[in-house]
Amino acid sequence: MDGHDTCGHHGHGPAAHGPARTAELVARAERLAQDLGLQFTALRRRTLEVVAEEGRPLGAYDIAERLSAPGKRVAAVSVYRALDFLTEHGLVHRIASRNAFVPCEHGHGAGESAVFLICRSCGSVDETISAEIERSLDRTLAQAGFKPASRIVEIEGECGTCQGRQEAG
Ligand SMILES: [Zn+2]
Ligand SMILES: [Zn+2]
User: Fold this and answer.
1) Distance, CA 153 to ligand 1 centroid (Å)?
2) For the chain, which residues make up each domain, given as ranges?
3) What spacing in Å lies between the alpha carbon of 57 and ligand 1's midpoint?
4) Name one GO cellular component term (predicted).
5) How far is the CA of 86 from the centre of ligand 2 (A)?
6) Is 33 helix (H, G, I), strand (E, B) or coil?
7) Under a CB-based contact definition with an 8 Å cutoff, are residues 66 and 53 in contact?
8) Which residues are annotated as a binding site for Fe cation?
9) Rounded to an integer, what distance in angstroms lies between the CA atom of residue 161 and that of residue 121?
10) CB distance 105 to 120 below 8 Å
11) Annotated binding site for Zn(2+), which residues?
12) Which pLDDT does position 108 carry in this prediction?
């Protein structure tokens, strides 16, 4: 049993950010930690909140800086540990090409893939799920006899908004 009943496959529109999105992610994390009998520590929660509120990829050092208060520094290594927990449970994703973290835009099941569209101009990241990519990735992995640790596809380029901006300017 690996909790497949918990994956919400809602359709997704444009990436939503902000307080509602953050509250939803935190609630998801709380449920998940409870189900697994794990601790959703204050640092894990704060890290998730910072990533969710940012709306663009954030590195661990930036997160640590935001969590630090005068006289109370949070070490990047602690943030990395919190991020390990959050990525492991699909609450945030690591964008390898940026070494940065984004909140998960959907609830996916374990082993599901995500496709990230990363804009070089404005730095926005759009997460999407494709059943077609999922299927062909399954086939490719099976043919190669390869066991994936993560299934994340990153595509760099220019988002629709930035393309429009260039034409207008
Ligand atoms: Zn995701
Ligand atoms: Zn852009």
Assistant:
1) 11
2) 13-168
3) 13
4) cytosol
5) 26
6) helix
7) no
8) 134
9) 10
10) no
11) 119, 122, 159, 162
12) 73
Contact (Cβ atoms closer than 8 angstroms) between residue 109 and residue 149: no
Task: Write out pLDDT tens, residues 49-81.
Answer: 999 998 789 999 999 999 999 999 999 999 999
In whole angstroms, give the CA distance from residue 66 to residue 10.
31
How is the chain split among helix, strand and coil, in percent rounded to 5?
45, 15, 40
Distances (CA, A) of 85 to 47, 95, 134: 10, 16, 24
122-166: pLDDT as tens digits = 988 999 888 888 899 999 999 999 998 888 899 999 999 999 887
Cα–Cα distance measured from residue 51 to residue 59, given in angstroms and rounded to the nearest whole number: 9
AA letter at 160: G
Q: Which residue has the tokens 């449970």?
A: 89
Q: From the DSSP assignment, how many helices (H) and strands (E) are in the chain?
A: 6, 5
| Cα 94 to the center of its chain, rounded Å | 6
For residue 115, what are its two tokens? 């496709």
CATH architecture designation of domain 13-168:
Orthogonal Bundle (1.10)
